[in-house]
Structures are given as structure tokens and as C-alpha cells.
Amino acid sequence: MDNNQNLKTIFSCNPFEVIKQYKNKHKGKDNNIYNSQEYKDFQNIVKQPFINFCYFLHQQVPCEFAANNFYKITSDLIEIDLTILVSPYKISLHKYLDIFSLLYIELTDTSIIIKFIDGAGAFLARKIGEKNPVMIAKIIAENVKAFDFAYNGDSCYFNQREILNSSQEELINKFKKWFQYYLPFFLQAVSKKPITAVSQPIYSLDQCTEDTGVSQPVLERWICTINRKVQAVLYGSPGTGKTYLAEKLARHLIGGGDGFSELVQFHPAYSYEDFIQGIRPQSQNGILAYPLVPGRFLEFCKKAESREDTCVLIIDEINRANLAQVFGELMYLLEYWDKEIPLAGSNNFRIPENVRIIGTMNTADKSIANIDHALRRRFAFIELRPNYKVLERYHQKTGVPVEGLIKILQQLNQAIADKNYEIGISFFLTDNLQENIEDIWRMEIEPYLEEYFFNQLEKVDQFRWDEIKNKLWI
Fold it and tell me: Which CATH superfamily is domain 205-384 in?
């Protein structure tokens, strides 16, 4: 194999056109092309270049993998499965990239994607715990978010433009940059040394900017605000990406040490007993007892006390609960972090210095003007508005033109004329936008508009699907 191949593009021809032509030609038929000339052409244009790319991915991953025999270059590697399904007429090449069969790469008729199977994080947690059985409960309990790749992760996605115009080296570097977050977990899973702690790599502001579309100066200001005030609320209308951004900010704040983040979602029935502490009936040796049980926040703080680095609690939908009731004595501590106070029925309590709180608030449910003033002065409030550049940037990787959609959303939000109820862009951050856009619009956007304009339904009519569908892809 040519050692300079990694500097070239993966495919000399357009593999996506070849796959699409095959799909169109054989649509609705039960086909077997393995012995045909057509299949030989398919191999030369699509399959073999894809195999070469897998080979270079294996070659250029960090050397620790080779030391642990993590990646094996064997004959199995080039046995790529060709899956042909009659419905929905899908052709894909796929291969697992690790010895655990957790991480796989797939070439479809639209893209190349590298992602984890469901449950990959839990599997690695168990593998790490096996090296030190005493720590398995602690590892899983305290790092459930760190091991939950659905929570932290995404996929390494290459669109057609990238694949056809980028060198293999550029694509591999993108994969390595994406994979660096998960690298420590894989290394620990194959390491022969006992595991004493689980640390995470630094999540830089550059990465945060790339993932969120928010400029670095703005992110720096927000980070500074959170560290100064210690607690902050991200607020905005539906679909502005509040929870997603909170998770990314938390990931940056944690740094590269032993910090962690957790998420709790408030709702109207959430109580002081759930969040701080309360009496819970329990059966102990057949006898009903009523012990005082710590809530989520006390458990979080107890865990944070044993850590040196920043620990972040994300309170999603913070304004949906009765906050004065849920926080109780915490209202005092949120203003005086250096103080210690007694809790009802238990010992004294103080918030550890390394704790940060980030809340998210949907202004369509309740605007900040309706939040208790005592609470408002205890939090910094960071406003989020629909960021159309994020939508544009996201769909650069899918190749879907969204200029028409953005114009419609801008017109729609002008008609709404209230920033607390604007339609955000996260409704449309999906890789299958062209296939799903009608469902999204009819089932999510229109009902929302009908509720907002309940006594002015004529304003909704101009934004019905039948009115806007021909303006989307211009």
C-alpha cells in the first residue's frame, strides 16, 4: 500500500453516486450482485477505498492502542459487510473499529459516520471496574454521566463535500480530535494497571465554539460570569439549545481533572425532599422505618467534596418547580457561599467551593420577569436567542441547503414579535432534515403557533406547511 496514500482523498471517483445509481437501478428487487461485473466495479470504486480508510484509521490512532493490542490489523479488517436491504433500500459498508465492537464506522449513500453502539459507556465502566472490583460501584455511580456517551457524545460525521475534497490525513485528524474525549476510557478498559481515578481531557473553548457555534469571546464572558457568580441560568425561547449549551459549558468548566457534572430536571411536583433532604419510608429487616434521606443536591455536594476540580450541577427547566419551596435554606447559601447553616433535622451544611450551578429556563413557560426577585438576584442570567448561523453551520455537513428555511424562521419570529416565544433552531438540527421537515413542521411548529396565536389563527395560516413547503429549498 502506498505510504503517501493518506495524503490523498479517499476516493478517486464519487462513491455516493455509484451507491445511488445502484439503489435506483435495483429498487424494489431482492438482489445479489456478488458475482457480477457490477459488484467488481462497486468494489473498486467504493469498497476498496473505504477499506484503505479503515486501515489508515487503525494505523494512526495513538500508539497506546498498539501497546495494548487495542487495534488489530487482521484479515478480519478487510471483510467489510455489504448490506443490501430491499426496504428502505439501504446500502452501507460498515466495520467495528475496536476489539469490544463498541465503535464502528459506516459508509452510506450520503456520508461516512463513526459512532458508538448503545450502551458502550456502561460496558466500558464494567471493564474498568473489573480491574478493581472495590471501585466498580463508585465508578459507575459517580461517573455515570462520564460513561454515558449518548449524554456527552455524538458522532464523527463526514459529509460528501469533506470526503471528496479533504485528504485522508485531514479526515483522520478530525476523527482523533473527536475521539480524544473517549480515549481515556478505552485506554483504562484495556490497561493492566488498577484504576484509581477517572479523569477527563480538557474541553477547550475552541472545541466548545466549534460544537455550539457561539464565538469564543462570548463564551469567555459567560464562563467568567459563571465562575464569578457561581450560579447562572441560561434562558430563552424553545429550541435555542439551552440544555445542549449548558452541557458543553459544564464540560469546559470541569477541565481535565477529577470534576464531574450531573443533570437534574425540575417539574411542578419536585420538592425540597427531592432536592435537599426528607424523610423516606423504607423497609429494614421487615420493619418500616422513616430515615432522613439526602436529596440530589446534598448527594451531589457530598461527592464534590471529595474532588479537587470543578463539579457542575445542571438544573434543567429550573422555572417549572416552586423554587422558593424546593431550595429552602439553600436560598441563603446561594447568596453566601462561604457560610454554613444547619438544615432542618440534620447537621450543618455548606456548599463546596468547587461547585457550580447552571440552570436552564424556557421563557415560553415563564419569563424571568415572573421569577421571584430574591432568586433573580442570586443568579446571573444569560440570554439565548435563535442562532441561525448554528443551523447553517450544522447543515454544511449534511449538504442540505437551509437558506430558505432560515428566511421563513426569521419571518415567523418577526410575526411572533416576542423574544420569549420565538422559534429556535434546534428543531431542525437533524441529519435527515429533508425527510423529516414536514413532520417537524406539522407536528411541532404548527401546534405551537396555534397555541400562541389561539385568538388570531389567520396569522398561522401563512406559515402552514402547504404555504411554506415550496419556499424551503430555494
Answer: P-loop containing nucleotide triphosphate hydrolases (3.40.50.300)
